[in-house]
Amino acid sequence: MTTAKLDQLVRIPADSVSLEGMLQLPEGARGVVLFAHGSGSSRHSPRNNYVAGVLRDAGVGTLLMDLLTREEDMNYETRFDIPLLTRRLLAATDWLKDSEHAGDLPIGYFGASTGAAAALQAAARVAEIAAVVSRGGRPDLAGSEALGKVRCPTLLLVGGLDDVVIQLNRQAQAQMDCPRELLIVPGATHLFEEPGTLEQVARHAAAWFTRYLGEGTGARKPGASAPPPATAR
Predict the structure, then answer these.
(1) How far apart are CA 170 and CA 182, in angstroms?
(2) Using the 8-state DSSP alphabet, how is residue 111 labeled?
(3) What sign has the CA pseudo-torsion 86, 103, 200, 67?
(4) N or C: which terminal CB in the chain sees fewer CB atoms within 10 Å?
(5) Which of the two residues, 231 and 81, has the higher pLDDT score?
(6) Sheet holding 180-185, edge to edge
(7) 154 lies in some domain
(8) Whether residue 83 has pLDDT greater than 70
(9) Cβ of 229: how many Cβ atoms within 10 Å?
(10) Does residue 223 contact residue 127 with C-beta atoms inside 8 Å?
(11) Is residue 200 situated within a structural domain?
């Protein structure tokens, strides 16, 4: 595993609360990815932490944070409050842009489940977001208006056995007007618990982010010409 240049527990103000997160940057990071966790999950999610480790090995920094406080997460309705999750993600994005350690780095979003909807709503509002990856996400919950405003390259990863979510992702993909790709991981269910499936998710996410976040500190900023999206296999 890559040794982190920075490994810092942070607190991010959002609304009237303070959210805890972990910012980790490898040496010469080409960008930083902010994780938007799904309903009932947190920055301690073993799946997202595994993906984050693979990203850091690929030279991409990560910020894993809780979008909800412990009390808020106990409320089922709050878990699915996409505008609230989006607002928290935007607050974290502003904090990251002002960060002493990561403020000059391109930013990407990695969203899981309902977190993917928040990531896409936020990306529709923040032109600087360089790339989005969704894992087993519900991009449809972002709404057609937000989906149509996303301009950054977006990768939708869905398990091959997750039939309903595949259809929802296809519908969302059709409403987007940006470089986008729907990649189906064979033999995987919604949580990618089957052997080897999460490894595929991490590998595809790392390839997407390294393609679109640039070549390291001071690399191409969002808005410059980008290479074409990867081809699904």
Answers:
(1) 7
(2) E
(3) negative
(4) C
(5) 81
(6) 4-14, 17-26, 61-65, 32-36, 107-112, 129-135, 154-159, 180-185
(7) yes
(8) yes
(9) 17
(10) yes
(11) yes
For residue 205, the enclosing domain spans 4-213
Residue 86 belongs to some domain of the structure? yes
> Do the Cβ atoms of 165 and 138 come closer than 8 Å?
yes
Return the structure tokens found at 75.
Answer: 């409320």
Question: Cβ contacts of residue 210 below 8 Å, gap of 6+?
Answer: 30, 58, 59, 60
Q: Say how many domains are in the chain.
A: 1
Q: Is residue 137 part of a domain?
A: yes
Q: Which of 133, 147, 156, 131 has the alpha carbon at shortest distance from 221?
A: 131
Number of other CB atoms surrounding residue 191 within 10 Å: 16
The region that residue 36 occupies, defined by phi over 0 for left and psi between -120 and 50 for alpha, beta otherwise, is beta
Global model pTM greater than 0.85:
yes
CATH code assigned at 171: 3.40.50.1820
Q: What is the mean pLDDT of residues 43-55?
A: 89
pLDDT digits 0-9 by tens, 110-146: 999 999 999 999 999 999 999 999 999 999 999 999 9
- Other CB atoms within a 10 A radius of the CB of residue 83 amount to 11
How far, in Å, CA of 205 to CA of 190, rounded?
Answer: 16
